Amino acid sequence: MFRRVKGTRDILPEEILFWRKTEETCTRIFSSYGYEEIRTPLMEEFSLFCRSLGKTTEVVKKQMFEIKRGSGHLVLRPEATASIVRAYLENRLDRKRGLAKFYYVGAMFRAERQQKGRLRQFHHLGVEAIGSNSPNLDIEIISLLNRLVKELNIEGYQIYINSLGCIKDKQVLAKILRYKITPYLDNLCADCKRRFKQNVFRILDCKKPECMRIVNKLELGTDHLCDSCKKHLESVLAGLDTLGIGYKFEPALVRGLDYYTRTIFEIKHPRLGSQDALGAGGRYDNLVAEFGGPELGAIGFALGEERLLLAQSRQPQPQEPRLVTYLITLGEEADKAGVKLLDKLREQGIASDMDYTEGRSLKGKMRRADELGVRLTVIIGEDELKKGTVTLKDMVSGKQEEVKIDEVTRRLKCYEPIRAES
Ligand SMILES: [Zn+2]
Ligand SMILES: [Zn+2]
């Protein structure tokens, strides 16, 4: 027997309702905030992510699913921001409108370490707003994130915010970090010793207890921010206060990808443990220009769909409309008449199905109709066939009646499917 690829999951029909409900809620809210859906390919050039996420980031170094064909070097996308900025520029959307607001839903791929129990194909629900440096956009994005999580009935979450500042400020921050970490250098884990030279920000993200203890002692603040970035941050925080959105300012918060600037944020939930966030995002004010476009501010976030499902405190009970009718036929001739009637019912938009199981008794077929929760069962036996009728059994009242076969469609049209019990 074949098995699924490690780190992937099958989402079965009984589970898919929760996925759909989550996606429907999110996309409804995205639309109501003026975001439009965009779908980019699952495959992109390797260089796209190398350039945007950063050569020394964990994702690019260790987690990309690479596809080499001929001279091409492709990857399965590990995230969507870089793809969306690429699409934005390639389709010249910068010329067509001022601020462009996109949302997306889809699979991402990262070769995560297996022992962490993380998925290698996972799903993101996210937004990107490209074309503005206004702090009001940061406020909108964070309040949108907050609203989504609330609407999904997730409680007990916490939003963390920090500002990395502009590119210059990030360089200052790197200097401050190196200066403050130097006395503890010998006590860092092996990875962090390497990060100290290559990408000092990543030390703040290390989950090793010895490194976390050091990070806690650093007493970071906002000294690295220039006046303009400081003002931006103040406006964002004041705006969130006005809207009554709770957050915690966390100077040790960094993001694992290089393109982030200024406002960054993360939303955590206790159900996921300390290592994982429900979602995260931030500004990437230099990425559009870096990709060859104009200087445009941009900000976005992504939520992990699997994690959203895990964190939902009262799992929603989505209800799938069931079938209206189920056809049960007895004998070969009745089968033929049944297939014909089924087609007619479906043509009329009446949700119907028929039992194709070979050798199942009438009792077995009735039991199946019960399990499916249908409104009416249509029985065609030899007797009925001779008379040109069918027996309709009302599965709620249990009453039966004989109806002319030509009359069935008209009779069934007024029935709604029964909703599944929650
Ligand atoms: Zn700055
Ligand atoms: Zn470390």
How are the secondary structure elements laid out?
Layout: H1 13-32, E1 36-37, E2 43-45, H2 46-53, H3 58-62, E3 65-69, E4 72-76, H4 81-90, H5 93-96, E5 100-109, E6 121-130, H6 135-151, E7 158-163, H7 167-181, H8 190-198, H9 209-216, H10 227-242, E8 248-249, E9 261-268, E10 277-283, H11 287-290, E11 298-304, H12 305-311, E12 325-329, H13 332-347, E13 352-354, H14 362-372, E14 376-380, H15 382-387, E15 389-394, E16 400-404, H16 408-412
Parallel strand pairs: 1-5, 7-8, 12-13, 12-14
Antiparallel strand pairs: 2-4, 3-4, 5-6, 6-11, 7-9, 9-10, 10-11, 14-15, 15-16
Helix pairs in contact: 1-6, 6-10
The structure holds zinc ion (2 copies).
The site of one zinc ion has 7 residues, from α8.
Task: Write a short abstract of this structure.
The protein has 422 residues and is of the alpha+beta class. It has helices at residues 13-32, 46-53, 58-62, 81-90, 93-96, 135-151, 167-181, 190-198, 209-216, 227-242, 287-290, 305-311, 332-347, 362-372, 382-387, 408-412, and strands spanning 36-37, 43-45, 65-69, 72-76, 100-109, 121-130, 158-163, 248-249, 261-268, 277-283, 298-304, 325-329, 352-354, 376-380, 389-394, 400-404.
